[in-house]
Amino acid sequence: MKITVFGCGYVGLTTAVGLAEMGNTVIGIDVDPQKVAMLKDGIVPFYEPGLQEMLLRQITEGRLSFYTDAKLGIESSEIVFSAVGTPPLKDHYADLSAVLNVAEQFKFYAEGEKVFINKSTVPIGTSDKILEIIQPKISLKNRFQVLSNPEFLREGTALKDFFEPDRIIIGTYGHDAGLRKLMKKLYRPMIERGVPLVFTDIRSAEVIKYASNAYLATRLSFVNELANFCETAGADIQSVRKGVGLDKRIGTHFFQPGIGFGGSCLPKDLNALIEMGKQSGFDFKVLDAAQKVNLQQPYRIIEAVKNVFPNLNGITFAIWGVAFKPGTDDLRDAPSLAIIHELLRQGAKLQVYDPVTIPKLRKIFEKKLSYSQDYYSPLQNASGLLILTEWEEFRNPDFGRMKSFMKEHYIFDGRNIFDREDVEKNDFSYYGIGSLSVQRKLKSKRSRVKLGL
Ligand code: UDX
After folding, report:
1. What percent of the chain has pLDDT over 70?
2. Domains in the chain, start-ordered, CATH in brackets?
3. Given ligand 1 and candidates 51, 121, 154, 213, which is best to mutate, with the most ligand atoms within 8 Å of its CB?
């Protein structure tokens, strides 16, 4: 099939590369000439495991090409995907100008039978706006269809999620057998592997995308709040989440407490759904609470640090991991940033290591942080270590070596990657999210040290 994808960001590029890998002839269109030049050279402008290799292969095999020319993209293909950005505006509402611009160009250049598929996360009712734009050109000769096909891929596992989605959602206007056949053909490799293809009305498809992310966000705020409660109750969240999660209706997956959720989607989509509700006079009480909990959550680890070090001025800390999650260099809405800003504001000195985000961090914090190339260096003379992203490489460190670098031996584990007993066996004092008994120990141990006991 001949397919054009507008927008070469995470979603668009993964979609374009994935569709080419499935044997289609794919054109990627982006307004940014620099990005297009990089992609033509086989360079992915962001960090996403496996994407670079697959991109190069598809370019070399001639199934994938990139241009800035919208006319060429629309004229060449029977299916046109829009996967352009919808960044939040000041009022939390998504900026639709890029999506509507693709629709305008589609109206201008499309002839014959073509399908416009929206993949960008857009407010409910956007497909109606797209159709409104395209409608005047629809005729017996120009048979255009508008679909909504939301994307659920996660950064860091984008290709896997593209090829092995939990479901494919297609929202349509009415029931068109020909169109359904075309979508089944497009997604045949996934359908043959048992992936459910679900057809819905167009608005329901738009709601499904927001509802999925809002549910995930709420689930995380629930487990984070539960972890905070465990600290008060003297319980251990790791045992609690296992005991709760083994109920098949609940599950342990996507149920790890931490420093709060971040990234380009969960916080933005949660905000957007709350705002959409407000604008139509609907009050999302649960989502409101989920959002409030998430705004507070990064500060829990600072409270833990301050229990041990009431005055942070001049105290050096090492930080392991800043990306909003492992497998990405994305810092958008990363809770680590709120923590770093606050520690700096209180006068702490921070020595930071992250396997991929250092170039981006340098742009944000310039000389306010000290940057390291490996994860042992930032421990030099540090009084404590804060773990803010659960990169795999952090999981089995040489505790003896760590201790030899550090001035005082405190670990504040914002992602609960370590087993407390392991850490304490190595004579570190350990704080993990959701266990106050440990926190009490930390405090008393340092008081004893201070008193020379
Ligand atoms: C999310 C959705 O999962 C995906 O379906 C959608 O298409 C885009 O938004 P992504 O932003 O890539 O994907 O990240 P995700 O893996 O969902 O993690 C989001 C945040 O939740 C991260 O900050 C992560 O650290 C946090 N998280 C995740 C937890 O704190 N605990 C968990 O158990 C899982």
Report:
1. 96
2. 2-192 (3.40.50.720), 216-442 (3.40.50.720)
3. 154
